[in-house]
């Protein structure tokens, strides 16, 4: 599912983009995808979310990335306080091998 909303961007606002990668062991992959599918679906429906996607590498099916677009910092803050994030994200993290490697960037152009 690809989700990207253009209706909520504020002209001249700085948008945060979060890109994080994780490695999931093969035996946990299906459960991880199920949890993240629910998280992505619920997060993308939040009023402050500009887009939220789960990606899987073609050359390593146990490597995943999630990409989040937040037109305002408040939107991301609100997201981190939702019930679905506070419940589902720790469940997904329990299935990850190693650390979540992520960056937060601001869109320039």
UniProtKB/TrEMBL annotation:
GO terms for molecular function: monooxygenase activity. The keyword Transferase does not apply. InterPro entries: ABM_dom, AI-2_Isomerase_LsrG, Dimeric_a/b-barrel. Pfam families: ABM. Keywords: Monooxygenase, Oxidoreductase. The keyword NAD does not apply. Residues 16-104 form the ABM domain. PANTHER family: ABM DOMAIN-CONTAINING PROTEIN, QUINOL MONOOXYGENASE YGIN-RELATED. This is Antibiotic biosynthesis monooxygenase. The lineage of its organism: Bacteria, Bacillati, Actinomycetota, Actinomycetes, Bifidobacteriales.
């Amino acid at each position: 599912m690809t989700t990207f909303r253009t209706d909520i961007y504020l002209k001249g606002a700085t948008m945060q983009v979060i890109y994080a990668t994780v490695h999931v062991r093969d035996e946990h992959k299906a459960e991880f995808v199920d949890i993240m599918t629910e998280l992505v679906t619920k997060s993308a429906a939040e009023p402050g979310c500009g887009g939220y996607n789960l990606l899987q590498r073609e050359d390593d099916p146990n490597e995943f990335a999630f990409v989040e677009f937040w037109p305002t910092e408040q939107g991301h803050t609100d997201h981190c306080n939702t019930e679905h994030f506070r419940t589902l994200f720790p469940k997904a993290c329990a299935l990850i091998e190693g650390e979540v490697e992520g960056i937060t960037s601001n869109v320039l152009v």
